[in-house]
Amino acid sequence: MPLSMYQASIPVFIRMMGNLSAILDKAAAYAEAKKIDPSVLINARLAPDMRPLSFQVQTASDMAKGCAARLAGIDAPSFPDTESTFPQLQERIAKTIAFLRTVTAEQVDGSEERDVVLKLRGQETRFKGQPYLLTFVLPNFYFHLTTAYAILRHNGLDIGKADFTGGRG
Fold it and tell me: What is the pTM of this model?
């Protein structure tokens, strides 16, 4: 049986957002144990011209919920990008996962040819559903997850590949 659009998206988003949540739990515990102001980690970045950890979490959330909604033909919830604490970032992840769990295979499967139109840097960009998922969303989603992981690892958090993948991989 071929891989469906649902299988390639929603369970992947749920799993990886859950893994990100577990990493953020470790980051909060690390900050407390090392007596580091949590805002130092939340505002940390790998390079001066990169966005901070909070942005990486927000964008991973936006990619997952936006993709799910566009493929399902429904509205995505809108979250203001105001999270500045670990509990707030965790709440955003929880709300994202809760939304993803409402999206069904029946809504997403068959969306390979669905038209997806995005405004990117002021320009309209058009995709069909499958290339949107495979060549735009998944690379961006994993980029922001990886960057969040790298920011925390760079700042001394003892995490590894198993934390990123959820223990299998």
Answer: 0.95
**Which of 94, 83, 86, 81 is CA-nearest to residue 31?**
86
DSSP reduced 3-state for 154: helix
Q: Where along the chain do its domains lie?
A: 10-161
Q: Does domain 10-161 have CATH number 1.20.120.450?
A: yes
Contacts of 122 (CB under 8 A, 6+ apart): none
The Cα 5–Cα 34 span in angstroms is: 43
Name the 3-class secondary structure at 101.
helix
Cβ atoms of residues 31 and 129 within 8 Å: no
Q: Tens of pLDDT along 33-46?
A: 999 999 999 999 99
- Residue 168, pLDDT score: 63
